[in-house]
Amino acid sequence: MADIRLGGLQRLSSCDWPGELVATLFLQGCSWNCPYCHNPHLIPAQAAGMLSWDEVLAFLAARRGLLDGVVFSGGEPTLQRELPEAMKAVRGLGFKIGLHTAGPYPTRLAAALPFCDWVGFDVKAPFAEYRRVTGVPGSGERARRSLALLLASGLACQVRTTVDPSLLDAAAVARMGAELLALGVTRHVLQEFRLAGTRPERPVHG
User: Fold this and answer.
1) Whose CA is closest to 159, among 146, 168, 169, 170?
2) Distance between CA atoms of 67 and 158, rounded to whole angstroms?
3) Structural domains in the chain (count)
4) Which three-class secondary structure state does DSSP give residue 58?
5) Is residue 203 assigned to a domain?
6) CA-CA 20 to 30 A from 110: which of 23, 72, 102, 158?
7) Cα(99)–Cα(72) distance, rounded to whole angstroms?
8) Is there a domain that residue 121 lies in?
9) Long-range contacts made by residues 7-10, C-beta under 8 angstroms, separation at least 24?
C-alpha cells in the first residue's frame, strides 16, 4: 500500500455520498483533462504534499463508530492499481465504501466493484462526443463499458453529469439521456456547472 498516492482528505462530508456521513479520500492522478474540473491539482500523477497511507489509516481508525463510510474520489481513483487493496483495508476497519469514478479503466473498475457499497458515476457527454470533454480519443467507449459493468453489478449508484453549457447544449443532454435510458439508467442527475474552482485558462479540445 505504500505506492497509493493520496492528494487530499476531507475529514467529514455529508454530500459526497447522499444520505451518508463520510470521509473522502482524494486520490492523485487523472488521465482525462476536462475543462470544468474542480480538482485540477489532482490531475498530475505526482504532487507535493501528498498524504501517507499510514496517516490516513490512523485517522480512519480513530473515526470508527463516528462515520458511516469512506469515499474514494479524485482525480480518478481507478488510475491506481492499488485501489482494491486500499478499499479492502478500509473495509477492514468497519467502514462502508463509496467510489467516485468516470470509468476510464473498465478492467480496473471491475476489480474494485466487489469492495464497493455505492458508486457515483460521472457521465461526461454522449459517448461518441467524449473527446471534446476529456481530450482523449476512445474515452467514451471506455466510459460506456464501465457504466455497463456498474449497472450489471447491481450496486447502488448515482449517475450524474456536470452540464457545462460551453460543452453540452440541450440537444447533447437529450442525446445523452436517451443513451443512458437505453443502458438501463432510470435516474440521471444533472449538476450545474460552476466556474469557481476551475482553471483560469480552461483547456479547449478539438
Assistant:
1) 146
2) 20
3) 1
4) helix
5) no
6) 23
7) 5
8) yes
9) 7/39, 7/41, 7/42, 7/47, 7/50, 7/51, 7/74, 7/75, 8/42, 8/51, 9/51, 9/56, 9/59
Beta strands in 102-194 (DSSP E): 118-122, 156-163, 188-192
C-beta of residue 75 within 8 angstroms of C-beta of residue 32? no
- Whether 148 is covered by a domain: the verdict is yes
Task: Report the candidate in 78, 70, 71, 80 with the shortest Cα–Cα distance to residue 46.
Answer: 80
Tens-binned pLDDT, residue by residue, of the chain (206 aa): 557 999 999 999 999 999 999 999 999 999 999 999 888 999 998 887 789 999 999 999 999 999 999 999 999 999 999 999 999 999 999 999 999 999 999 999 999 999 999 999 999 999 999 999 999 999 999 999 999 999 999 999 999 999 999 999 999 999 999 999 999 999 999 998 887 777 777 777 86
Distance CA 140, CA 102 (A): 10
Domain encompassing residue 153:
6-192
Whole-prediction pTM = 0.95
Contact indicator for 5, 80 with CB cutoff of 8 Å: yes
- CATH code, domain with 85: 3.20.20.70
Q: Quick one: DSSP state of residue 201?
A: S
